[in-house]
Design a protein that fits this description.
The structure is a homodimer. Chain A is globular and about 60 Å long. The first copy, chain A, is of the alpha/beta class. In chain A, strands 3, 4, 5, 6, 7, 14 and 15 form a seven-stranded mixed sheet that branches. A six-stranded parallel sheet of chain A has the order 10-9-8-11-12-13, sandwiched between helices. Chain A is 26% helix and 24% strand. In chain A, helix 2 packs across helix 3 and helix 2 crosses helix 9. The interface between A and B is medium-sized, with 33 and 33 residues. Strand 13 of chain A pairs antiparallel with strand 13 of chain B, so a sheet runs across the interface.
């Protein structure tokens, strides 16, 4: 165990695609917890698309980062020193503790996790924010009905893989979209989706259309762009589109222009953006459902783990290009 | 009273902006009602943006017109011959009876209107489809709360003018958008909106931004295009956008590309398309509300009446350019 802290800072605002030089890895002194605070050793860092948005200047739903700030991110951590009666040494928890080896906290916003409930890393994925995001968006906004067709973008990612499996549990026909043929086996054979469409295929529109012969009832959108625009033309009357992310636009200076919104009128589509942190009251129910599905073997998950905090920038760059399978993590050594 | 029928047919599919030569006005024999049918004399024809969509080839929410078909449209009509026990001579009603002087019907889909409840023409406007559309979209999807900011597109039109006044009745601050400075007096002085923004102004974005210093809680959209795209950047968290029409795209071959949909995620916006004919069960309540607001003088309306069925094509062309103030009608002489 090192006795120096290690941090990854925002060094420059990306202009278009993010690159390694937009980050700076620095050593720093160990942080010292004051009265009421705890010292935490981060074990895993969650790599998520929203991080790219927070690197920009301007408005998001959260305050964006300033140059020199520690990169924002959720970690799974262990308490190694406590001056707070609510926490004791050895407690494991998840919190927005940033891209760093050590962090201090007054405990606000931390979520303790039971080591018996699953591997620590799972609380950043299927049993954490991505899993609850999938659960909320599909069940609360999408409201699937058995027999309906559900299309899931980024189907092999941390959110999409869970969305599709929950839709299968609810008796839907599930079509996954992702980039690259190597993901087919994972999405269809491992996750049990009914079909897979490669958005990098030159015949993407035709292949997607063929994959949904009865049209689309629910499209769980994490990408926006041409995928959303195409799905709009395939939507059934009274379809639902939970809007959860727009990764297509994050790593570019020119957002895609969606041309088929008229379909939202013609087909009475309900589109709704959501942010999972608004719905804290539903997390216990979501995590209880997800845990029980994992226990009974009807929900499975994958992780892509990148070794060492220094690899976090390349892990984010890879995530934005779709290199990961399942939840992208960084193990903080 | 003529004893020949007069009809306006779809003569050609418009390629971009609709023009007079896309229509053909023809004389025809009087239709003869069979057993169970009624003969109707159309008095007023409602001119509505959806008509433009139905002139296209391809998919809409309703079957599109074929070349040679009588143009689709709602009329206010009088029964002049009846072979149906549910209707008697002199009954007044509203129905989708088309761009023609006389029509026959078996009575299905007709809505009888009480002559005592208001002028016949009003049942095509404030007490008809446009009024109920405004009522439904604002109250059922928009769900206004007193003190919120409501922005209304096509504010001087048949739907927008009612939306804004209902929003005022519910204690909202209302900003109207329309094209041309001549509409300011109408929207602000006559309809009582709090502010007006001209979408034709070279400083439209700046002027709209200035008109909503606290952001937008509800945007009632009938136009799409750059207005929708700009509003998306001004939406408050948890705002609502009833999607009712996209007149910006109707009269062009190239739909506008909406670039700011990410705001729907960042601000958890609920967008929902609707078609008022889906909600027949709510019409009585809507018309009861609208009638009572008119009676008590808190809801006012305007009509632009074009004389003679032969003027219907130019009335539609004018509507699509925003020439009308209030409900655009054609008086069928």
């Amino acid at each position: 165990m090192s006795d120096r802290n290690l941090k990854v800072l925002l060094a420059a605002r990306p202009n278009g695609a993010v690159k390694e030089s937009d980050f700076e890895v620095v050593e720093a002194d160990m942080p010292k917890p004051a009265g009421g605070e705890i010292l935490l050793r981060n074990r895993f860092l969650s790599i998520d698309p929203y991080m790219r948005v927070r690197m920009n200047e301007g408005r998001s739903y959260a305050t964006n980062l300033q140059i020199g700030d520690v990169m924002v991110g959720d970690t799974a951590a262990e308490v190694i020193e406590s001056h707070n009666p609510d926490f004791k040494i050895g407690d494991t928890l998840v919190g927005r503790l940033g891209w760093q080896r050590y962090a201090i906290s007054n405990g606000v916003g931390l979520r303790k996790v039971d080591p018996a409930s699953g591997p620590l890393s799972a609380h950043l994925g299927v049993l954490g924010m991505p899993g609850v995001t999938a659960w909320y968006g599909l069940l609360q906004i999408g409201r699937p009905v058995a027999g309906e067709t559900v299309v899931v973008a980024a189907a092999s990612g941390a959110v999409g893989s869970v969305v599709g499996q929950i839709a299968k549990i609810h008796g839907c026909r599930v079509v996954g979209i992702a980039g690259g043929k190597m993901k087919t086996r994972h999405v269809v054979d491992e996750l049990g989706f009914d079909a897979f469409v490669d958005h990098r295929s030159p015949n993407f529109v035709r292949e997607l259309t063929a994959a949904v012969p009865e049209g689309v009832n629910i499209y769980f959108d994490t990408v926006g762009g041409v995928v959303l625009d195409t799905i709009l033309t395939l939507c059934r009357p009274f379809s639902r589109i939970p809007l959860c992310g727009m990764i297509n636009d994050y790593d570019t200076t020119q957002p895609y222009g969606v041309q088929n919104l008229y379909s939202a009128i013609a087909n009475r589509i309900h589109l709704e953006g959501f942010i999972i942190s608004d719905h804290a009251e539903l997390w216990p129910q979501a995590i209880s459902d997800l845990s029980s599905w994992i226990r009974t073997g009807i929900l499975t998950y994958r992780e892509t783990v990148s070794p060492g905090l220094e690899t976090a920038p390349s892990a984010l760059i890879g995530l934005l290009k779709g290199d990961n399978l399942g939840k992208q993590l960084v193990q903080i050594t």
